Sequence to fold (289 residues):
Amino acid sequence: MEPRVHLRNCLLIFITLAFASLIIYFAGNVHMYWFLYAVPLLIAAGAYGVYGTLVVGGVSVGLIAYWVLQGFYPGTIAQSPVNLKDEILLGMGTFLAAAFILGYLSDKGRKQRTMLERLSIHDSLTGLHNYGYFTGTLRDEIKRAERYETPLSFIMMDIDYFKEYNDIFGHEKGNKVLKRIAQVLVKGVREIDTVARYGGEEFAIVLPSVGKKEAVLVAERLREKVATLEFEGDKDHPVVKRTISAGVASYPRDAKSDTELIVVADHALYLAKREGRNKVCGYEAAKQA
Fold:
């Protein structure tokens, strides 16, 4: 949680606790207004889950007990100290139980939302960003590059002869190849770069503030790393090698928009395939071919 959001939540909890206490103080009656302490409880449940709700619930119970002991309770409580103690303990237990349930439900809802958000922007097989997230990111990065007049490069990659591998060794082993190569790509770029599964055996990498020459070097480094990997085959071919081909294009040198950048990078990838695969081609080379 960001410090600013944390501070806002703490202030809201403090203000609502203080407001409920002031109402009870001036009304002189905790019996009619104790439910106001449910407001900071709800804020804590939404912001901090079980532990935050229990803390605020404990504070609220303590305040309610304080008002009762100070006489801010109408004559409905029995005069016996034992009955008063039992009634306070029962109220505290009920309030804390409600706090725990609220916090638990909030935590569960937060985890479900996080999972749904992750599924909406990530590929379920490789864990990489999906096509929808990639297109949005590329569009935003193009706008940022235009605003600050910085370069941006894009790499389109494809696993060579992947269909043949699937046909021979099966889709389950093919999925392992996709996952392994995805891990290599993520580890081989910066945190600010975006690696996505473009579709099938194709991957896309967005490199903000990176020029064409440097992007080609990045693609070459990734290609060489993938070429060293060993994948599971079968009894006749226990170890199998796979390679990747890549096309590289840059903004604004090769394209003026996100869609155009994808097209020219794909054209460069096509040239890399045509020239024998396991190769990196920039768009300039593809344009001359």
